[in-house]
Amino acid sequence: MKPLIVCFSQTGKTKKLCGCMAKSLDADFVELKEIARRGLIGAYTLGVYDAIRRKSGDILPVDTDISEYDTLVVASPVWAGNVTPAVNDFVREYDLNGKTVYGFITHAGGAGEAANLLRTELEQAGAICPHVLDLQATRELIYDVKAERKAFRLTSDGKLELSEQDGEKKE
Q: Higher pLDDT residue, 128 or 171?
């Protein structure tokens, strides 16, 4: 069965990478949307404050039946070293019990504790989280992924990775 990629993206960088990931993994894709969409100023002020406090955001219902998937990738940008409130809301509101859920976080230069926090949230929701991939979302990386010089894959040893054509990988 195909995996499902569940993504929240404020600026579009995480969404671009997740779209390419969906293509690489032959996965379905759904984007999380907040009920009251934050502008950039709101995201970088009150949104960051909510992320630090590990609050849930209010997301619109996902139009995909999550119960049909055994494997998911939950993706979030990093806000002040934390997972976004929208992703917290998804993990806390949807039934992930017993599912294999990989984490995927993107950041501009510092992930802080976001990978550990996402893993903890997923495991508290009953998911099996074998790996959280942490990537710095640079323009160059996005360009390489879109140009298919790099591709995402799920490995036999339970990791989500980004591999380059020459075989190098980012774990």
A: 128
